[in-house]
Amino acid sequence: MKINRLSVFQKNLPLKDPYWLSGGRLKFEVLDATFVKVETDAGITGWGEGTPWGNTYVPAHGPGIRAGIETMAPALLGLDPRQVEHVERAMDLNLPGHLYAKQPIDMACWDIMGQAFDLPIADLLGGKRSTGTPAASSVSSGEPDYMLDIIKSYRDRGYVAHSAKVGGSDTDKDIERIRHLEANRLANEILLYDVNRSWTRREASIVMNAVADLGVTFEQPGETLDDIAQIRSVTTSPISVDESLVTLQDATRIARDGIADVFGIKLNRVGGLTKARRMRDVAIAHGIQIFVMATGGTAMADIEAAHLAQSIPDAFIRACWSCQDMLTVDIAPGSGQRCVNGLITIDDTPGLGIVPDEALLGEPVAVYQIG
To answer: Which fold has domain 3-118+355-369?
Structure first.
C-alpha cells in the first residue's frame, strides 16, 4: 500500500463565544483548521485535522501546517501509511521540528492503518477500555461567578471535568476564583486550574500556597520546565504540565526529576499519536496520570484524542478535553463518536471512525500526487 495523493483543505472554525486565555491576556474568536485527505493505491483513504488554538497561544499556527505539508509532501508520496514510524522518520528528516504540522498527517496514517486491519485506533494503541473517558470543558477566564456559570452550563450537558483558566498578576483575584469554584464543586467533578504559563514564579508560589489546603491541581503554573521545577520546590499542590510537554525528552525529564504529577498530552503540540503513545508509556511507567487534549478543533480532533485516552488504563486517565461543543460549525454531521452525557466513548468502527463532509470543507487549497 502506498500514499498516492494528499489533498489539503482550510476551514475557519468560529467559536460560539469569545474565549479569554488565563489572566484574560489573549482573546480568541475563530480557529484556523487544516484538514488532510490521504489517499492510497489500495483505495483506502485516511483523514487528519490540525487546529492550533489561534496564532498566539503556542508556537503553532494554521498557515504553518499547510506550509509544512507542502515541504514534506514529496517525501511522503510513495510511502506505506501503515508504517507510521517510517512516515514519522520521513517527516522529521525533511522538516526538523514543526511538530504541529506533522500531526494531521500522522492522524490520517493511523486512520488508514485502522481501516486496513479492521480495528479502531485505540485497539492499535494497545487496546481500548470498555468504559468511556470523561470529557473536559474549557472555562474561559473571568469573574468567579462568570466562570461558575460556564461550568454549570457544561454540567447540564453531563460534563464532570472542567479546566478553569486562572493566572495573571492579580493573585488575590485568582485565590478568590479558586476558592469560589471549589466551594461550588460537585462531589464527582474533576477541576483543573490552568494557568497557561501566565504566572511568574512569585505569583505561582503566592496563589498555590494560599490554597494548598484545597488539594487542587494546577496546570502549567510557569513558562518553562525550569520555572515549574522551582515552583515545585516551594509549593505542595499537584502540578500538570502540557504546554512545556513537547518532546519525549521533556516527558522523561519531567518523570525523572519529579517536576509534575500529571501529563497533559496535546496531540497537535507533540506531533501526533505516534509520538504521544511513547509519552503515555513513560507516564504510566512512572505513576503519572494523564489528561489528553487536542489543541483545538472539531469532533475529528476530539476523536483522535479520545482514541489515545481510551487506550490509557482507568487508574491513569483523568479526562479528555472536548472542543467540539465550543464551535458553531460541524464538518462531519452524523459521523463519528460524540460527547454524550459527559463521556467520549470509542466504538469498534475501524480507524478514526469519522469522515468529514467534503462539501462543507470546500475545494482543496493544495493537492500533491504521484505522476
So the answer is: Enolase-like; domain 1 (3.30.390)
Q: Which residues are catalytic?
A: 165, 266
Edge-to-edge strand order for the sheet containing 45-50? 45-50, 27-40, 3-20, 366-369
- Tell me: the pLDDT tens digits for 340-361? 888 889 999 999 999 999 999 9
CATH code, 123-344: 3.20.20.120
The 10 Å Cβ neighbour count of residue 338 is 18
Domains 3-118+355-369 and 123-344 share a fold: no
Of 24-33, 198-207, 216-225, 299-308, the one with minimum mean pLDDT is 24-33
